[in-house]
Every structure is written in structure tokens, then in C-alpha cells.
Amino acid sequence: MTTAAATPAVRGGSLRTRDFRLLWIGETTSMLGSAVAGVALPLVAVVTLRAGTFSVGLLTAAAWLPWLLVGLPAGAWVDRLPKRPVMLACNTVSMAVFASVPVAAWSGALTMAHLLAAATAGGVAKVFFNLAYRAYLPTLVGDERLLAANTRLQGSESAAQVAGPGLAGLLAQGFGAVSGVLADAVSFGVAVLCLRSIRTRETRRDGTAGETRQGGKGNGTRRDGTARRRLRAEIRDGLRFVVGDPYLRTLTVFSALSNIALMGYQSIQVVFLARNLGAQPGQVGVVLALAGAGGLLGAALAGRIAARFGTARGFLLCEAFAAPMLLLGPAGSDGTGLAFFTAAGFGAGAGIVASNILTGTFRQRYCPAEMFGRITASTSALNYGAIPLGGLLGGVLGEAVGVRGTMWLMAAVQLLSLTVLLLGPLRPLRDFPACPPARSLP
After folding, report:
1. What end-to-end distance do the CA atoms of the chain give, in Å?
2. DSSP one-letter code for 143
3. Is the dihedral of CA 96, 99, 104, 106 positive or negative?
4. 218 has which bridge partners?
5. Three-class secondary structure of residue 330 per DSSP
6. Angle, CA 383 vertex, CA 380 and CA 385 arms, to 5°
7. What is the chain's alpha carbon radius of gyration, rounded to the nearest angstrom?
């Protein structure tokens, strides 16, 4: 039952529809704002509040810790609710939270506690938004267009990651450090307007059997008793599904190890560029932008890689290409150092972004619609929860063994994480499976 006039087949047949364009525009704007804020928030802490290194590091942890704190129950709640209203509420909260930072700064009332609270609240909103957003996309475009849709959205995110740091620097220089945070708040406002204008609605769930998501698979015979189960039981169902599924279990363990290595590497890359290679601030920005541009290439090639090699094999090839590229990062010195680092970031980014598109599309097609939020929360709590751990590990090891040595070590960990994939069930497959093995849903 839906209020949308178009059928799933018509909507899924093209990505040129009004509703997908609105989602794409809104999310691209929001992702650019978030990329700006990723640089602007630390700048506010350092420039405006004269915060120390530890306090700045806490901002990163505050943004990602909500996945550990509320990720699992958020998945169960999102499964119970229509996704578009959740997304609207999250973007509205984020807009208000980040708008409060420049207001407090202009009134002379901004504190580090305020910044940490804003980062944490924005992180909580991001948890709920991401879970709802991933479940809503198949409703909007249909399963058959998921790969193309994810490619476009990931391409926009990669472009935002390239443009965001430079834009944050320009805004900070021209209008003050808090202007970048204000730009983030405005970007969430644009996303809210775009979401409100989308006409496609999800299938209403009234607890009866056989309802399906738009363009998706059947939900089975789960009845209204499921909706009344305790939250802990629903969370346990999501965890049990992930642990019991060989493909999701393998991808989750690999992603957690990979995120520890990548964040440990990235958390000290600015220090490496500035101190070990002697790069000036402007050079650091250019190098990171060029390295980030690899994500654009990965997004552009993901569909072709899937068509040529298959989705599962293409994913393995992308990760096998990305991991050794990181070894180039700390390899150079003096005149060659910046070139080596740029090549490492460009190549690794291309492989990782392409692989993320393939695995993200796989999960959206593979996971039962009525459990998607819980399954995604179960995997993301471990995957994203590993990010602050990786950042902390990079900082600690950087002090203990040196920045270059830590980057070598993190690159080696990333390379070793490939063994999880090579020993798992994906290695002999050409394509990811379309649905889980026969099982009784909890």
C-alpha cells in the first residue's frame, strides 16, 4: 500500500526521476557540509578555543562513539518506523545542533564542552539517519538500480571529501573558523527541504503477512507479535543473523580490522606530511585533495568492475589493489615523499570506494527488509566502533615508535586483513549471493 503513483518497476527503471534527484541533491549538499565541518570543528577548537591535541582528538571520538553507544538499539527502532520521517528528524536535529555552535561563538559563550556535545549529538543523529537512509534507498529506486544509485551517491561523497577541506580552509580564512560549521548547518537545511519534497512513500506495515518493500523482496510471514517483542530480543535477532551468516560475518570482521588500520594511518597523516616531509599547510591541503580524488575514480569504475569480474570477485580485486597501495605512503622522503603519499592515497581511495559501493549494494539486496536496520546496526557498531580505536592506536603508536613506523605498521595490518577475505566464503564466488541461505527468521 503506497501513496506513490508510480510502480516500483517504473521508479526503478531510471535514476532520472524527480524523487531520486531530490535525494541526490540533498545528500550531496549535506555530505559537502559534513566534509567542511570535519575540518571546521577542529579549527574552531584550535583557533577559537585554543584547545590542546587531546581535546581535538576527543571531537573525532565523540562523532563516532554513538555507534557503540546507541547503534544496536537504533537499528531495532529504525526497523519499527517509516524511514523518511526518521531521516527528516535526524537532519533537522543536526541542523539545529550545528547552528548552535556559531551562535554561541558570536555571543562569546562557546566552550569545548559545547563543541563535544554538538559532535556527540550530531553523531547520534547520524547513526539513525544512516540506518534509515540505507533502508530507504531501495524503496526509492528499486533493487535493480541499487548499484547505479549507490555509485552516484558514493561519487558525490568522494567529490565532497575532495572539495570539503579546501572549502573549510577558505571559509575559515575569509569569515572565521565557525563559518564552516554554519555552512554544515545550512547544508542540513537544504537536505531537509529536499527530503520533504520527495513524494515516494514506503509500504505501510500493519503487521499482516506478506507485505514487501518497494522494489524489494517479501518479508515472509512475520506477524504483529514481532512488533511487540522486547527491544533486547529484536537486537539479539540482528546480532544472531550477522553471526550466523557466513558472508556478513566475514565482511564485518574484515571491515573492523580494516577500519582500525585505516584510521590509525589517517589519524597521523597530517603530522607525517608536515613534520616528516616538511609540507606547508597549503601543500598538505593539496596533497590530501589529490589523494582523495581517487575515490571519484573508484566510484566511476565500480559498475564496470562488477560487470567485468562479478560483484564478489570485483570486491576482492578492489581490496587486493587498495591494501598494498598504502605501503607507498611512508616509503618516500624529501622530494619523492609527497608524490608517493599522493599515489598511495589515490590508489587506496579508488579501491576502497569501489569496494564499498559493491558491498553496500550487496547488503541492501541481501538482507531481509524487515530486519535491515538491526542487521546494519549490528555490523556498523563493530565497523564504526573500530574507528575511534584506530585513531587512538595511531596516536599512541606514533608517540612510541614514530610517525613513519606507525604508518608502515598500519599499512601492514591493512594488508594482513585481506586474509580474512581469502579464507572466507567469498573467494570462490563470482557474484555476491542474491539472498540468504534458507533459514527460519527469528
Report:
1. 25
2. G
3. negative
4. 212
5. coil
6. 90
7. 22
